[in-house]
Design brief:
extended, mainly alpha, 0% strand
């Protein structure tokens, strides 16, 4: 579930981003969530049932969300490592021009 929720949060961020949101403008959230959980072997019913379980068990949800936050933080760190050299190179190029 951690992998699924990590991807759900990334997708949600993309949907509200003005640059990417237009892609999802007329798409029902069920459609883009199904593209996340179905490849991982979950059906919509299983996904909904799992979310209902966590809604009834907030302590368990907090443990899962801690792992989701850690996963998102790790992805952000990895992305920053990839982006940083590009930003430095662009700044150097801007100084030359």
């Amino acid at each position: 579930m951690v992998k699924i929720l990590t991807k759900v949060f990334i997708t949600d961020a993309a949907v509200v981003n003005p640059h990417f949101g237009r892609i999802y403008y007329n798409v029902d959230s069920i459609d883009y969530y199904s593209n996340i959980y179905e490849p991982m072997g979950y059906t919509q019913q299983q996904f909904d049932s799992t979310l209902s379980y966590y809604a009834r068990n907030p302590a368990e949800l907090n443990r899962v969300m801690d792992k989701v936050v850690a996963s998102l933080s790790q992805l952000e760190s990895e992305l920053n490592v990839q982006i940083k050299p590009e930003k430095v190179q662009r700044r150097q190029q801007d100084l030359i021009e």
